[in-house]
Every structure is written in C-alpha cells, then in structure tokens.
Amino acid sequence: MAYGQLRESTARVSSAPEHGIEAGTAPVEIGLNAAIVAVTDNEPVVLVIRHEADSAGATDGLPFGPFSPLQHRTLESGLRAWVHRQAGLELGYAEQLYTFGDRGRHAQPGDLSPHVVSIGYLALTQVKPSMEMLHGVWRSWYHYFPWEDWRRGRPEILEATMEPRLREWANERTSAPQPVSRQERVRICFGLDGAAWDEEKVLERYELLYEAGLVEEAARDGRDAAHQWSQRPRLGVPMQYDHRRILATAIGRVRAKIKYRPVIFELMPDDFTLFELQRTVEAILGPHLHKQNFRRLVEGAGLVEPTGDVKMRTGGRPAKLYRFRREVLMERPAPGVRVKPGKL
Q1: Is residue 271 within 8 Å of 307, Cβ to Cβ?
Q2: In terms of Cα–Cα distance, which of 32, 30, 64, 31 is closest to 47?
Q3: Mean pLDDT across the stretch 160-189?
Q4: Residue 113 has what pLDDT?
Q5: Does the model's pTM come out above 0.90?
Q6: What average pLDDT is seen over the chain?
Q7: Which of 24, 27, 128, 134 is the most buried (most CB within 10 A)?
Q8: Residues forming beta bridges with residue 34, ordered by sequence position
C-alpha cells in the first residue's frame, strides 16, 4: 500500500488559519510503519511490501497503514488492526521505535501534498509453515544491510568497497566545525583503526553512509554528497521512502534488547534445542558465537529448562529439547542473553 493511497484516511492536522495554525505550514498526516521481524532457516527476515520502482530503483517498503482516531483507541491497536487486514498476521510482541518526520522523507521534491509523519514499530513474530501471506514477502534484512552480517567473519564489502570510500569522504575538507570529526565517526561506527565493532550501531552506520552519499536513497533524495561519486557502489538493496532508516533503527533496537530482555524467545517455538537458540541469536546479532560459552551462559542465567524430550537429528545424536523458563521474569529485572560477540 503506497503513501498516496492513504491520504484520505490518515489523521490530518490542517494548516488552515481557522484551526489556529500558522498560515503557510503544511498539513500533516499520521501513519504507522512496522518492521515485522522473524527468523526462518537461521536467517533474520523482515516483512516487505512490493511497490512500483521509485527513482532509485527501490521496490521494497515496510508495511504502512493509517492511524484513524475514530476507529483506533490507541496507536498500537491501530497497528495491530491494519497489519491483520493487510498481511493476515496476528502480531505478538510489539514496541514503539521512534517518530520519523524529517522533511523530504517521501523523496518528492516540490510536492505540496500533506506531509506524513510515521510512528515506527518493531514487532517480533514466527514464520510458520501454515502461514499464508495476504500481501508481502519475507526477505533477509542482510539484503538491505550486507555489512551487518558477521557470521562468516568480517564482511568483504566493508574492506573492499566501503572503507576506501568512507575514508575518502572523511578526509575531505569541511567548512563547518564539527564536535566529532568525520574520521572519528567513521572509525567508531565501522570499527576501523583498532576500534571495536559495535553490532548495535546499525542506524549510525546507515546514517553515515547516507550523509556520505553512498547509498541509493541519498542520490534519490537529492543529497549533495551523492553527486561526488562518479561510480557509486551498490551497498545493499535500497528501500522506498525512509524505510531503510526505519529498518536500521529496528535492527539496532532488537540487537540491544535481547541482551537485557528475553525477547529472543518471541522468535522461537515453544520447544527448541540449544543449538537452534544459538543460531537464532547469531542470526540477529551477526557474529558467530562460541558454542560451549553460549550454552554455559544461557543455562547459567536460568533462561531455559529441559522439557525431558529430545529431537532426532539427521546423522547425529538426539538433542535435548528446552523451553523458555518464564519464572526468570520474576527473579531479576533484566533477564536477557548477555552475549559479547567479540569475546565469545
């Protein structure tokens, strides 16, 4: 569903003088975006809706729907209602991410139509074999952010493609003083020159790439920095509007959240092996984790308990089945999977 199709039903703040709003201001509409995340076949996936290609060649967008104050008592109830109508999904865990309302976020220069302010949500679910999608497809979030996937080591795209261009951009002369230099921001965000890679800085990395004009969305939005690259590399799959920024916010949030809240189990079936749990955590965080350290951490934290059953594996020994131990929620305030990927 495209933004333009929603303008008749979104909540609107009029700019007419009789409403007490300064003349000349643009009307604003309120919409809801959802980054709906699951893990299937050891791959973190997000639900995307396909549209006609925009000027950047982007066809993928996050699900979007209007907030109707006449129909929805709360923002979250509105989110759940239209996700069910649009995709046939019953959302479980959902939390509000951020309000996205930057000018020009629709990438339509000179457009005088109402400006849409979107309230972004992160939702976690499970992809089940019997699930039939009314609209949309599941796609790995690493299609959009290939530099975030460290499961096989440092991604080649970082050193071969991104690092030289980021250094070139960072070393340019800038007229405006900056509290933190470009060089230092690049070093911290991308783990260069001895800095550690922080898997939670997904949004910071994407925004640096946008500022440097290295992603397709920057060129589409008319950012000056995008014009300096005669051969701009294809850094992941672009998304419509500012949806890749919203998705980056969601990835960073869930990567941080699993360390202090047991939200990882929202992505797991009722019964699972510790290996399946480890692969799911790796899929979300990016890097490979040490098997024995991970098991000691999870069992020692009291997050899981054995069910007494086993799961037969092809060509191997039966694996014990576990379930989430819900009593841990009452025992301590922050029962998350406190992994430190760089040290495991």
Answers
A1: yes
A2: 64
A3: 90
A4: 66
A5: no
A6: 83
A7: 27
A8: 121
Distance between CA atoms of 211 and 227, rounded to whole angstroms? Answer: 12
284 neighbors 258 (Cβ within 8 angstroms): yes
What the block records as the tokens of 194 is 């001895």
CA distance 91 to 188: 36
Q: Range with the lowest mean pLDDT among 192-201, 248-257, 324-333?
A: 324-333
Task: Write the CB contacts of 22 (distance below 8 Å, at least 6 apart in sequence).
Answer: 15
In the chain, where do the E strands start and end? 11-13, 28-40, 43-50, 60-61, 64-66, 93-100, 115-124, 137-140, 304-311, 319-324
Contacting residues for 191 by C-beta, under 8 A, at least 6 apart: 197, 198
Q: What is the DSSP string of 242-269?
A: THHHHHHHHHHHHHHHTTTS-GGGGGS-
Distance of CA 68 to the CA centre of its chain: 25
| pLDDT at res. 90 | 81
Q: How far is CA 230 from CA 58, 165, 214, 219, 313, in A?
A: 20, 12, 11, 12, 52
Query: Which range is most confident: 21-25, 221-225, 265-269, 338-342?
Result: 265-269
Of residues 220, 261, 174, 268, the one with CA closest to residue 57: 220
Separation CA 273–CA 265 (nearest Å): 12
* Rounded-to-integer distance, Cα 210 and Cα 144, Å: 13
Q: At what angle do helices 202-211 and 243-257 cross, to 10 degrees?
A: 150
Q: pLDDT of 32-50, one tens digit each?
A: 889 999 999 999 999 998 8
Q: Whole-angstrom Cα distance, residue 46 to residue 35?
A: 7
| 277-281-282-283 Cα dihedral, nearest 10 degrees | 100
The first and second tokens of residue 19, run together, are 């409403």
**If pLDDT is split at 50, 70 and 90, which confidence band does 84 have?**
confident
Q: How far apart are CA 344 and CA 340, in angstroms?
A: 6
Coil/strand/helix, residue 335: coil
